[in-house]
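Aim 2 progress update. The chain analyzed this quarter is reproduced below.
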Amino acid sequence: MVDFKTVFSVSQFARHLNDHFRTEFGAIRIQGEVASFTRASSGHWYFGLKDSTAQLKAVMFRQRNILAGFLPAVGDKVEVLAQLAMYEQRGELQLIVDVMKKAGQGNLHEQYLQLKAKLSQEGLFDLNRKKPVPTVVFNLGVVTSLQAAALADVKQALARRAPHVKYTVYHTAVQGEQAAAQIIDALQKADAAGHEVLILCRGGGSLEDLWSFNIEAVVRAVAACKTPVVVGVGHESDVTLAEFAADLRAATPTAAAELISKPTQELLTQVHNLHSNLRRALRHRAQLLVQQLDRAEMRLLTPTAYVNALESKIHNALTRMPRLVQRQLQQHEAAVSNRGQSLTLEMRKAQALANQRSESAAAAIRMAQNRQLTAMESRLQRLGAVVEAVSPQRTLERGYAFLQPEVGDEVVRSVEQVKNGDNLRATLADGEIVLNVLEKTSLRGPSAKRKENSR
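Predicted structure tokens:
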């Protein structure tokens, strides 16, 4: 209770009011519309909060506003946690704001956490249900808005890293009341089109801006796709429920394109290495087969060698026989003759068996060689098809061209290499045309600014 007899100075009474406000109100929550907004060079925010009948001045110092996560604008609906105080130098009441968030954001965040917990308990985010994403992609489906800066980021990343990747864009709104239904429809169409991978993406924004990607039906549609889905929404700090349900989450749309696009040059290097390894393997296999054939032939005893060995044995036996057993030799002459005939029959059988085994071994080796060569030729054809698909000629056939001076073989890579009035040769897939430079524009000019502003 203030004694009416007490006389205060202005400063004393102002401090007394401030103490009274802190004791009476403490921290209070106020919701209203931003009526005015100024961001000082010091980083502090000075703004007004209003409703239909009243208005309050407010200040949010830099060490507090850097935690807000957004920059308010006139007309925004916000909720603040503040203390009531008097600005003593001017004698004005104002709110000292500690926390600010967009009105309704707390409810959305609560819905986000509740749905996340529900779907997580169902196993919708489990790693064991995620489909593997191919390491090499040639056919891509992109689900986003045709006007989104995210689409430009994806196109730029693919053109820079992997021009061999063909992509189809499935247009959908990515924000607003109709966005969820359109996203689901576009996902289903893209999933049925036979792409190797799908990218679902959009740029950054507030929780409300990204809310279409937190709607349960959209999250379930992402999880239900038979085609592997990569989701890149917003900036690295933005995480939507659709990203938890995706087979692969990318921090940004550009990162999504980079994750599924193996550089063309790297693919060409791999194909070249595979071709070299295949040639070496073919030579090595052929050498092994030749060595196996040589060893098989060495193991086969020829009929001539067999006969020579027997004749040598007979000659040695006759030489060692003494003259005294000549009569005995005559008596056994018939037996020796019969034995000779038997040996002849045995040699013929041995020769026939040896010939049969030799022919069987040779046939088996030829069949093994043919099977191996057929498999290697088939693999070479597939690798050749991959090389053909990423060849410069194929790139020209897709509508690209490269420029050269009218005289000379140097390739024009920059507008700085030409001037107005120059004649250039443009090489297309089926021939050349001669062009005259009427005007040139650098990407550092207005077009670059327009491109930057479109993001």
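The chain has a mean pLDDT of 82. The chain has four domains: 10-103, 125-262, 266-389, 396-453. These observations will guide the mutagenesis experiments scheduled for the next reporting period.
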